[in-house]
Amino acid sequence: MKNTRTNIMAATKKLIVEKGYSDMTTKDIAKEANVNEATLFRQFGSKKELLLATLREADWIPSVSSGISDQFQWDLAKDLRVIMADYFEQVTPEIVRFSLGLRAQDIYQETMPYVDKIPTAFVQLLEDYLRAMEEREKLQISDAKASAEVIFSSMIGFAFLHAYTNKKQYQIEAEHFISQAVSQFVEGLNEQNV
């Protein structure tokens, strides 16, 4: 029974990536999961409830890696690289396409709390890091939250712009982006300190 449930949720995730929520049907899900459509309704009740269960029970939703702050050297450039690399390792093109597939009007209110966990966690990490750099007197910053949002916005922008890139190319381009973005952010934040 658990295996059937897991297969149905995996099929749902796959089809959202491929078609989006609105264009995906329960027949599509049942076929992809290799189950009868009645099984899907017995397990979940409706397409919407299936999606919400898939989001609630997901162990694949990206989040800040535990212990990431243990990797910090309190060097702005090195630490921004660590944070960005962690983000791009988790926020793959498939995750971005899944997120895009959840933006259907009829489910938007229910899915956004799950999708918002990703930016909220990374923005908070960046903000906390910038404040800690201030406390250590390694950086003076006028608005840590705004700076964290700018840094994160560039990361999410890159991820969404490259959502349909293959995984290997995405990794290569992400490494180049990290290098360029870190040098620009460090330069900009250091200019505030002059």
Care to describe what's here?
This protein is about 70% helix and about 0% strand. It has about 190 residues and is mostly helical. It has 10 helices and no strands. The radius of gyration is 20 Å and the shape is elongated.
Termini separation comes to 63 Å
As a whole number of angstroms, the C-alpha radius of gyration is 20 Å
Q: What gross morphology would you assign?
A: elongated
The portion of residues forming beta strands comes to: under 5%
**Parts with pLDDT < 50 across at least 5 consecutive residues:** none
Order of helices and strands: HHHHHHHHHH
Instruction: Specify the number of helices.
Output: 10
Largest sheet: none
Mean pLDDT: 90
Name the helicity range: over 70%
* SS-derived structural category: mainly alpha
- Total beta strands: 0
What are the main properties of this structure?
194 residues; mainly alpha
Secondary structure layout plus pairing:
Elements: H1 2-19, H2 26-33, H3 37-44, H4 47-56, H5 76-90, H6 93-101, H7 108-115, H8 117-135, H9 144-161, H10 167-192
Helix pairs in contact: 1-2, 1-4, 1-6, 3-4, 5-8, 5-10, 8-9, 9-10
Short structural summary:
The chain is mainly alpha-helical. Helix content is 72%, strand content 0%.
